[in-house]
Amino acid sequence: VLGLLVWSLIAATTYHLHAAYGWVMFVSLFCWILTLLFFMTYLLQLQLKFYVIPWPLVLMIYNAVATVLYLTAFVTCAAAVQPTSWRQWDYNRRAAASFFACLTMIIYGVSTFFSFRAWKGLGSNAATSQVTDHA
User: Fold this and answer.
1) C-alpha to C-alpha distance for 81 and 61, rounded to whole angstroms
2) 23-49 as b/e, with b when 16 or more CB fall inside 10 Å?
3) Where does the protein end up (predicted)?
4) Residue pLDDT, tens place only, 39-53
5) Which one is predicted more confidently, 43 or 15?
6) How far is it, in rounded angstroms, from Cα 19 to Cα 25?
7) Alpha-carbon gap, residue 67 to 87, rounded angstroms
8) Which among 116, 33, 23, 38 is positioned nearest to 70, based on CA atoms?
9) CA-to-CA separations, 57 to 12, 62, 71, 114, in angstroms, rounded
């Protein structure tokens, strides 16, 4: 949802006049589409059909790359916002896009952390923590 907000706020401005916002638009749209594809894959349980692919590792790598991409998009977007813009609505949308890009970057960072834990198998659920092995 946050990625959708970022690219819709940028798309509502005259982003094509500024190269910096083209990068923000690319990152936000690219990550949003890939996140949607991963979501649909897990929602439809397609990862069970493609069991050869190490899905926890793939998700961890994707989340880490998305975090770095959103870091660059956030810095680019925040640096390019000009408060003396002659179009006040563009300023407000770009400032809001910077804020939501920062939130999206943080969320992808947290997802990277949890993906790393899932990949390494560091977490356990209540069912597996109650089982003891008595021989």
Assistant:
1) 30
2) bbbebbbebbeebeebeebeeeeeeee
3) Apical cell membrane; Myelin membrane
4) 999 999 988 888 888
5) 43
6) 10
7) 30
8) 23
9) 35, 9, 21, 11
